[in-house]
Design a protein that fits this description.
395 residues; 2 domains; 13 helices; binds pyridoxal-5'-phosphate; seven-stranded mixed sheet; 38% helix; Aspartate Aminotransferase, domain 2; Aspartate Aminotransferase, domain 1
Length: 395
Amino acid sequence: MSISPLMPVYPRCGVRPVKGEHCHLIDEDGTRYLDFASGIAVNLLGHSHSGLIGAIQRQAETLMHVSNLYGSPQGEELAQMLVDKTFADTVFFTNSGAEAVEAAIKTARAYHQHEDGDAQRTELITFTNAFHGRTMATISASNQEKMHKGFMPLLPGFQYAEFDNLDHAKSLMSDKTAGFLVEPIQGEGGIRPGSDEFIHGLRKLADDNDLMLVFDEVQCGVARTGKLYAYEHYGIEPDIMATAKGIGGGFPLGACLATEKAARGMGFGTHGSTYGGNPLAMAAGKAVMEAVANDTFLNEVAGKGERLRSRLEQFIGNYPEMFELVRGKGLMLGLKMKVESRPFFVHLRDNHQLLTVAAGDNTLRILPPLVAGDAEFDEFFDKLSAGAASYDAAG
Ligand SMILES: *Cc1c(COP(=O)(O)O)cnc(C)c1O
């Protein structure tokens, strides 16, 4: 047999972490890496946060899992925290981002298939280079062919408009349109924030036509950008939102948030999940929310984001032939490169023990744990400078 026991869907690299310490990962052979990938925007409290560990330990000893057939004091508590801190009135818990987006898609469709709705409105307008996950519905929601190949047929009900192009989205609207599904800041697509005009325009189109504005904040949410959720930067609110990644700080957890109006189709028996919202996940989510959902922490992230960004802007001035620009918000930053970004990302990882994430549009994603500080930023620039200097000389 030549297939590996782990189904070979990931081209895994040679880094094999076995331990995490704050902002570092330690490999099987003892090599230490500076982790500015954070499990792709997941480990926002770093790798050995005593509060998160303690919360999970205590809950594991008390009660790990019960069915959603029973009442959930743990779920009510975390849902209430999210309701208090966001636009939402109600929350459905999931175990991943794709499931949170699935729940969001179902909520948007069910809004129109409710008795007060217009049942022919079944289509969501989504955007080019989006990433919404790897289930059939979420790959169907993205125009990226590399995710479709081999998995036909796609699910119907998605129209692709160009990201950040309001006129294009408007031109695809019809009496079948149910709403818009968009990452306000594209992650995988290359850390591309939607413009104010684009996001405000979608909100207005949704308001004027009784459509659902659905945000996928799986990557940009949970304090990553210096606000609890990225929609706050735009001064508008979505009707439905998917969140995951950072919300469990490394424990698998996601959620679909909605207003009361948007959730009108999600009554008894319409949706479910065996694990979703189990007490262990709720304990992790609560520990994360307690750490990040306050002005002190959020302002710190915003301040660190400013410092990291201005240092990056200064730095790229030294290598005008390699780097084009810095974009993003808070500690969700992208370095758009003029030369191919993927080999440089590999070079930083393998030769300088610096972990970042490659992304679309020739961009290097820089996603430090939100608890990283100036010491980690200094180490980051030491590694990045050494990496750029050796790469430049070799290239
Ligand atoms: C990662 C991601 C997802 C999918 O999350 P999973 O937990 O991998 O299912 C969905 N949307 C966005 C924007 C993401 O970055």
